[in-house]
Request: fold
Amino acid sequence: MKVGIMGAGKIAATMAQTINGMRHPEVELYAIASRTLEKARDFAQQHNAAKAFGSYEEMLKDPEVDLIYIATPHSEHYSNIKLCIKYKKAMLVEKAFTANAAQAEEVLELAKANHVFITEAIWTRYMPSRSIIDKLIEIGTIGKVHSIQANLGYHIFQKDRIFKPELAGGALLDIGVYPLNFALMAFGHDVAKIEGCCVKSDTGVDFMDNIAVTFKDGKFASLHATCMGPTDRIGFIYGEKGYITVTNINNPEKIEVFDTDHKLVRVVPIPQQVTGYEYEVLSCLEALKTGALECKEMPHQKTIEVLKLTDTLRRLWGIHYPFECLP
Reply:
């Protein structure tokens, strides 16, 4: 599976590092495309990619490319995806998949009609830690679960992708999707209500979010996201017989189980990894081998459902991007 990367920023570099570090006989970092050939060549040289292209379309014309990793800003995903579909290229698309659910529904229908594989790169959905947490809940380690608390924060408000509305900026699509997915992975997608509040920047995007999710079976999630500075990044899953803590919900480092007396009763090991990105790459490899059009870890319907929730929050907060018309 020869991978071409679209965009040459930090997240693209992490994916390149991942593929090279995997040393997998069936996965190769093959190409990089940037808006300038000079930047693409520098990236290719640094990360040992065979080809460098000064435009996205040039890379898509290369018949050797099997999978495109889209590592551009959220605002560009919609047009990037449509371009990849034009050339029948399989895609792994960084989160947020698109800026809103309407865009996602349109491109997913188009991909299906053209028999093109596509999946969202919300990496926590693919990690082994996901099944570890699911199993702990399933076997009743903490009894009947009832609520979740989770937070994630970084000092990134000064970055263009965060403060610029034209880049689909804000904490929600960049950071908030992680605590939201953390809750949905544990409690499912049967959401009865989502509400919350935010603190906006001078540019009108959200910089700090508090989100409350009520599930149809009565479970509840309290979530926090901020681009103003670091938080402890911990997720708590509460049950009748204790609780589970996950250190760093964005890339789990440690899973611990506590009893009703707050005593640590179990530390659950997490497999060593290259960066954590390798699991979504391996899932894409398996899907392409079997002819699947989506990954089981993040089905298309779930991508749409998450975006519908973020759409609801943005409508509630009065946030829209210059390029969109929300229903």
